[in-house]
Amino acid sequence: KAGVTQTPRYLIKTRGQQVTLSCSPISGHRSVSWYQQTPGQGLQFLFEYFSETQRNKGNFPGRFSGRQFSNSRSEMNVSTLELGDSALYLCASKGGQTRYGYTFGSGTRLTVV
Amino acid sequence: KNEVEQSPQNLTAQEGEFITINCSYSVGISALHWLQQHPGGGIVSLFMLSSGKKKHGRLIATINIQEKHSSLHITASHPRDSAVYICAVPHSGGGADGLTFGKGTHLIIQP
Q: CA of A57, closest CA in chain B: separation in Å?
């Protein structure tokens, strides 16, 4: 079955702009979580959505937001980009009784210049 | 919020050696995850375990719930095992999902 799909794979944006990243989970998975990975801070939890509701949120400023649609696809948005937002953004989906729990997408590498 | 400590941060070993990576966490959990990340970013889930021990090929994961500690072992290590290994636990309880991660162990296996 298809894995978790993240688009785009690479993105270059200018400081002050906003960006929207997309994540399509494995079919049937209703939980989608988002993560930021930087060399300095490692992997950090952004937020988690289940059935269009945000259930859990990490310690990130309000510039970071997300949503989930009725088909479980999710988007995250970062407004007023800062240089420090340059990172690999990963999403993962989870659903039902699976052997490994989470399936990760390949990520979107965002560079802010 | 759960805190995760992983050790060692870096490990270089010779092909064939037995590898152990350790993970400790602060708050009781429902399950612990071991992940593998290769250069380029892709993350693969290796194990999800809530008790005891699991084995997959040359990889073995154990967990001690009482001591809040888990280990990942690699037997007969091979250069293709070179990667970053990451321990992760639920970010918080209450049924919501999302993971908190250790800093990762950068493993290099030399031929």
A: 8
Task: Please indicate if any CB of chain A lies within 8 Å of the CB of B111.
Answer: no
Angle (nearest 5°) at CA A28 between A2 and B102: 75
CA distance A62 to A13: 19
Min Cα separation A47/chain B (Å)? 7
CA–CA separation, B61 and A113 (whole Å): 41
pLDDT digits (tens, 9 = 90+) for B17-27: 999 999 999 88
pLDDT at B41: 72
Helix, strand, coil percentages in chain B from 3-state DSSP, rounded to 5? 5, 55, 40
Higher per-residue pLDDT: B43 or B92: B43
* A101 contacts in chain B (CB < 8 Å): 31, 33, 45, 48
Q: Cβ A43–B101 below 8 Å, yes or no?
A: yes
